[in-house]
User: Fold this.
Amino acid sequence: DARVTQTPRHKVTEMGQEVTMRCQPILGHNTVFWYRQTMMQGLELLAYFRNRAPLDDSGMPKDRFSAEMPDATLATLKIQPSEPRDSAVYFCASAPGTVNTEAFFGQGTRLTVV
Amino acid sequence: DQQVKQNSPSLSVQEGRISILNCDYTNSMFDYFLWYKKYPAEGPTFLISISSIKDKNEDGRFTVFLNKSAKHLSLHIVPSQPGDSAVYFCAATGGYQKVTFGIGTKLQVIP
Assistant:
């Protein structure tokens, strides 16, 4: 049963702390996305990778967010330092990489920064 | 600047009736459109898509219509079922462009 796996599912942290969210894309998918869901903006694209190379990270606040793919089975999204306005649900998704295909989403990480 | 707009935040429909969810886009480079469904505490799941070379795509109870001149698409669910109650996201992309999502419409199907 192929699925995108995200850890942790929930994270509560204090303002100023570093947060790392992890994603295991579906095996064989070479495009990986990070989205953030908020009430006002819906699903915002933060960054995406193709064949582990970052293609677009214009949606990320560069001073505090970073996204990497250390290998084909792991994508990470880090926030340092975290702020209360970062509280949201963060989704990772993967796609086979060809043009115009649907993405498969993980269950998300619900982040609360207090 | 919302390039994909879902202007109705919520919709209530009686079971058995038609649900119509609307979506407008502004970027004329978009040529492929998708609908995703999302249940609480889960990630979005793909529902149906349409290419700009078509004006209609059907999959069971779900039909998506595309009006390119109006930059408008709609998702029709007939007949609506209580299990269809979810948030529906419209999304659009063009070539290798990133996929842009709308803010979603929450559908409630009343038994």
User: Anything to note?
Assistant: Chain A touches chain B through 23 residues (CB under 8 Å).
